[in-house]
Amino acid sequence: MSERSGQNDELTLLGNKKTVYSFDYDPSVLESFQNMNTHRDYFVKFNFPEFTSLCPITSQPDFATLYISYVPDQKMVESKSLKLYLFSFRNHGDFHEDCMNKIADDLIKLMDPKYLEVWGKFTPRGGISIDPYVNYGKPGTKWEKVAFDRLAKHDLYPEKIDNR
Amino acid sequence: MSERSGQNDELTLLGNKKTVYSFDYDPSVLESFQNMNTHRDYFVKFNFPEFTSLCPITSQPDFATLYISYVPDQKMVESKSLKLYLFSFRNHGDFHEDCMNKIADDLIKLMDPKYLEVWGKFTPRGGISIDPYVNYGKPGTKWEKVAFDRLAKHDLYPEKIDNR
Amino acid sequence: MSERSGQNDELTLLGNKKTVYSFDYDPSVLESFQNMNTHRDYFVKFNFPEFTSLCPITSQPDFATLYISYVPDQKMVESKSLKLYLFSFRNHGDFHEDCMNKIADDLIKLMDPKYLEVWGKFTPRGGISIDPYVNYGKPGTKWEKVAFDRLAKHDLYPEKIDNR
Amino acid sequence: MSERSGQNDELTLLGNKKTVYSFDYDPSVLESFQNMNTHRDYFVKFNFPEFTSLCPITSQPDFATLYISYVPDQKMVESKSLKLYLFSFRNHGDFHEDCMNKIADDLIKLMDPKYLEVWGKFTPRGGISIDPYVNYGKPGTKWEKVAFDRLAKHDLYPEKIDNR
Amino acid sequence: MSERSGQNDELTLLGNKKTVYSFDYDPSVLESFQNMNTHRDYFVKFNFPEFTSLCPITSQPDFATLYISYVPDQKMVESKSLKLYLFSFRNHGDFHEDCMNKIADDLIKLMDPKYLEVWGKFTPRGGISIDPYVNYGKPGTKWEKVAFDRLAKHDLYPEKIDNR
Amino acid sequence: MSERSGQNDELTLLGNKKTVYSFDYDPSVLESFQNMNTHRDYFVKFNFPEFTSLCPITSQPDFATLYISYVPDQKMVESKSLKLYLFSFRNHGDFHEDCMNKIADDLIKLMDPKYLEVWGKFTPRGGISIDPYVNYGKPGTKWEKVAFDRLAKHDLYPEKIDNR
Amino acid sequence: MSERSGQNDELTLLGNKKTVYSFDYDPSVLESFQNMNTHRDYFVKFNFPEFTSLCPITSQPDFATLYISYVPDQKMVESKSLKLYLFSFRNHGDFHEDCMNKIADDLIKLMDPKYLEVWGKFTPRGGISIDPYVNYGKPGTKWEKVAFDRLAKHDLYPEKIDNR
Amino acid sequence: MSERSGQNDELTLLGNKKTVYSFDYDPSVLESFQNMNTHRDYFVKFNFPEFTSLCPITSQPDFATLYISYVPDQKMVESKSLKLYLFSFRNHGDFHEDCMNKIADDLIKLMDPKYLEVWGKFTPRGGISIDPYVNYGKPGTKWEKVAFDRLAKHDLYPEKIDNR
Amino acid sequence: MSERSGQNDELTLLGNKKTVYSFDYDPSVLESFQNMNTHRDYFVKFNFPEFTSLCPITSQPDFATLYISYVPDQKMVESKSLKLYLFSFRNHGDFHEDCMNKIADDLIKLMDPKYLEVWGKFTPRGGISIDPYVNYGKPGTKWEKVAFDRLAKHDLYPEKIDNR
Amino acid sequence: MSERSGQNDELTLLGNKKTVYSFDYDPSVLESFQNMNTHRDYFVKFNFPEFTSLCPITSQPDFATLYISYVPDQKMVESKSLKLYLFSFRNHGDFHEDCMNKIADDLIKLMDPKYLEVWGKFTPRGGISIDPYVNYGKPGTKWEKVAFDRLAKHDLYPEKIDNR
Ligand SMILES: [Ca+2]
Ligand SMILES: [Ca+2]
Ligand SMILES: [Ca+2]
Ligand SMILES: [Ca+2]
Ligand SMILES: [Ca+2]
Ligand SMILES: [Ca+2]
Ligand SMILES: [Ca+2]
Ligand SMILES: [Ca+2]
Ligand SMILES: [Ca+2]
Ligand SMILES: [Ca+2]
Ligand SMILES: [Ca+2]
Ligand SMILES: [Ca+2]
Ligand SMILES: [Ca+2]
Ligand SMILES: [Ca+2]
Ligand SMILES: [Ca+2]
Ligand SMILES: [Ca+2]
């Protein structure tokens, strides 16, 4: 059916028997597969409104919507493994900014992408909410400059927030 | 009536007797016609919220809204044939990223456009959704740089997603 | 300051030293306080977009926004204790419908209210989402009929859902 | 100009020289004037998104949008005096439910209206928000039943809340 | 063309030569025409977001969106004359509630309708906005009860207001 | 395939060779077919944002979105024929209220439905817009009362209009 | 974990090994399970924006969002089996109204519920869209009247449609 | 009153006696007037949601919202004449792309502007909609580059379309 | 209290006794005060949805929302005086484009700002609406180029308009 | 748990015993902590819809939503201390522009960030609202140019404001 079917051995998660959910930070669940469209650069974005972790000081649950975008080089991240990885923060305590940086680091390590960005939009605590934005361009390529340009233009037109 | 009426022979689909729907990936249904406004460069965008294909591993149906934009050179894609082409993915199994790349490849082959982009926004599976974005500028023209610039600025302000 | 300050002994959670978060279903964290406005019937609604529990079969995390409304009799639920109670479903496995019924049962037991309703709006799994709605009117009072009337008129104009 | 101008002596606030703002709960700033349209019953609604008070336990500021509606009998509340009254909660500590009941009590005392309702929609604390709704119909009139009917139908279709 | 063309003599405003705008309250500009569909009762609603008048005390301009609905008996109000009538409040000083009652009175006098309602939603002054709602059912008909029922159910689900 | 296929002879428009568009009011294009689900009463609604006619006085084009709902008895209106019928107002001059009444009359004549309603929401002229609403319940049935009840409750919560 | 776990034998689909997707109308995939909360009546709503079927005349794909609500008696429909059932219309040709009636019939047969409703909102063809609404109350119970009352009040305030 | 009043002879349409509507493509109705603010460059945008023409093959009516922006040089287009010109497409058959190019050509010829753009957003046919975008900068001026830059950045963030 | 209090002599309007409203174009009501933050460049934006003037030909009232932004040099415009100035167009006849240019000219003369822009978004007449946009950068400074760049990028993503 | 736990001594506010709220401008409550991700530049944004201060002339309360974004160097601002700092404006009188500049100055002094911006969007007074925007890039670094570029591109697409 799909031209990618020769690659199915790599994909252990999608359609497999029994998914096991880890709720302790676990980057080892991440899986990659081969980019089949290396003849061009393109973007893939993941929308994930179900991110939750714990405050490392108070253990109160935190909630966020994550937007993760990247330009693949040779490898791509498998979406179900990404979901499991993000679910693994569930009972993990960490600051908002550190979570976003850690996710970026783990995905860079997994895929060695040309470009990557991670944007977390958290729900408020005490009337204030925090939205960290982290990005990366492969050093020595034109994507390094793209990363800086995107950072320099980040969120020029912020969405309206009223905590309701 | 229209100045384009001398060209009607080319347009076999619009207004014809009996449309046949293929639900197996079929790029041969694509039809082009002559660009009547070659004195300027301009954009044409198609909005298509009725894209559906199958997951190549599980056969579960996938759904997406597609945004396809291009700057024509000599040829343009006829909209009804484009619709039939997109409907032909209905019972075809393929990954999201591969579908978008394939659509771009087929339209480039059909029209040889100056510029083209294909953006798919899929509905979520397991809490996560995927939005591939693919673009192209004709090599050796200024549109090659436009394509890179648009890729480098892609989706700086992502829409809000909450899976509801 | 507040006329309710004589009642502060009851309120052990609000403003207290160190909140402990339980992530195992724990109705014992619920606390009530005295309704100071018994000269009239009135509604109190809680909005809680941070509900999460586990699927009892697969252990996959589920997410919902909860709307809880009630008309107090003598007792009211303290909001911080309600938050802790709802957070206690975090690592608890239960079906959507059972969670909503259980929350209603626990709050009825705690407060013995005149009227109560619990509405959960879950995020989709596999393209489909589930919204259970449970309500209650104190038997033998006019609120019993109100409960049936509200059930009979429930959600006549459902919100638009497109899973994005 | 206006047919109401003979009544201007009553209206000491609107257009007066120097407004004094009290930030301590002060129902004495409320002023009423004569209803000029007693030949029919009608509604007047006030929208007030600038309500703020203090938590009586922690002194943390609370914020709400208030919707106040009434059907006048002989007297009406002057809008600028209502604003000053609502601003007078600024440094006053009280629970959400008690604030709404107190506002209703004060306006009933001032105007002796046929019908009145007060709805407060507060911003969240710790992920949960509270919306008290209080209403009143003059005892012994048909508005007593209207008040119960409106309470029984209150907020059947709650607005979507996501704390952002 | 239209079946109503025999009635055109009545309609002096629509399509006429030269419209004269009065900016002093002037109910004489109102024109009615014959209801051609007396075989059934039906609603006609006018939306008018361009209402402006003056504060009778301070002369500051006030602004509102008006929603006017009615069920005609024999006569209907011509829409261009209604517009001119509403524009005639431009330099007229009057309180919000009095404006809405006056508009209702004038339209009842003009048309003798079965049912009529006028809802004004004003922009805020000093953080507070006022929305009067006035209605009427012809005495001695079933529309008298309809008017009371609509008043009793008025604005149960108020729109969200944040003054932005 | 469909259980309704024995009925296809009735349906001359859907899927037929060559659609002819009339732009002169033409109720003869309306076609009905047999209701296959007479074991229950149910609603069918048509949304039609492409209605246009001419002002009978000035010939200026008018535009509206139409919402047509009905409960069928034995007959149903075929949607493509309804579209052609609505398009036939294109060069026809008539007042807004008369158009809506005429459409209701024609559909009642075609289908003899249990219940029917037609709501037109027109774009503004000179700052004011008109929304007629017409309904019908079959005399002597319970739907006659339903029609009156729906009329009596019509548009209690009008949409926000700002002409932009 | 869950109190419902003794019932897991019934639930063959959720969390099982290998889901098989049928794309031919197949009510046999529907599965029910026992209602664990028979001590009260409550609503369960399913949102399903991924419904697609074929036009029985032209075979063109149709798309709709479905809203299915019910009040269970002894049995409930398992959500994954409902999803598979709805997916089984994928290559099935049927009219919009017939699909909605068939879904209602199949779910009534499966669950014998106290109350059920099915609302389909289809995308437009040729500028017009169709939204059938079907409901049911168990004969001889109070839910029979509820069904009629909900039908009589159906969609009094239709959503705005502009086909974009 | 206005400083532009010496120019009124040019403006034959605004406020004149009797407007004649042509429904056959007629660029001769376009009128220009003198730009009174030549000391600076500035933009003027027209919003026109009432564009309709005919499909040149099937004669089915097409509908679009048009956004027309320009930077004037010496001449400006009079808005009422522009409306009449756009209405003149009503019974004219032409493809979407050709309509937009023709409008641009006619306005360039009329005004010889520094910059001009025309964006049409059409309603869908068969599930797909088309949005052509055409622009122009006066050759040999800096606006030629502006036109290319705006084309190169066109619609980077497309609006969400769901055909409802 | 404020560090700006030594400057209060300049501010004759804010908090003063009796505001006088002029409804004839009157730039003399504009007042400026000293910029206290000259150590950096920054933007100030005014939102004014209550602009109204008269058509210079027909005297029909026009309505607009104005957005005025500027980067101050030494002087700033006092907001209450700006409001009075904008209200002074109330009975003044002028074309949309001329109003916006005049406002820009008057504010440039008052403040001699580094940068200024004025955007008016008018309500439709006859189905078409006009939005002029005017800007300015101080000649000989880098703001001259900023003004051109902002003009060249103006409104690339126009808001959706449907005249409702 | 968190890798940042060695740093907890610095964080005296988060999770501490008893928060004290100051309502007099008090920059001393601001606390910083160490940036743990100095291997890359990234953005952190705070959304704060609960800002309120007093007008320095009239003492009327002002309300705003604040958006504060920065790129950290070595230090970051602790979010609870930022909240307390912003709450400390509650009974402080200052002009809108001065508040925003003061907040920027205090945060620059606290953190010495690479980049910082503060955007306040205030509610209207008398029909007009004010939105100051202040930014900063560390002198002598590339962020100085970023600050100017962001200022030059500030708010090119202002949100729609209608004061409701
Ligand atoms: Ca919000
Ligand atoms: Ca959403
Ligand atoms: Ca899913
Ligand atoms: Ca949605
Ligand atoms: Ca909070
Ligand atoms: Ca909190
Ligand atoms: Ca929200
Ligand atoms: Ca105000
Ligand atoms: Ca608002
Ligand atoms: Ca108009
Ligand atoms: Ca609008
Ligand atoms: Ca729409
Ligand atoms: Ca279509
Ligand atoms: Ca839409
Ligand atoms: Ca609109
Ligand atoms: Ca608004």
UniProtKB/TrEMBL annotation, chains A, B, C, D, E, F, G, H, I, J:
Substrate binds at V77, E78, S79, H96, E97. SUPFAM superfamilies: Tetrahydrobiopterin biosynthesis enzymes-like (SSF55620). The active site is at C55, D62. Its EC number is 1.7.1.13. Pathway: tRNA modification; tRNA-queuosine biosynthesis. It is an enzyme of class 1 (oxidoreductase). It holds the Pfam family QueF. Belongs to the GTP cyclohydrolase I family. QueF type 1 subfamily. This is NADPH-dependent 7-cyano-7-deazaguanine reductase. The gene is queF.
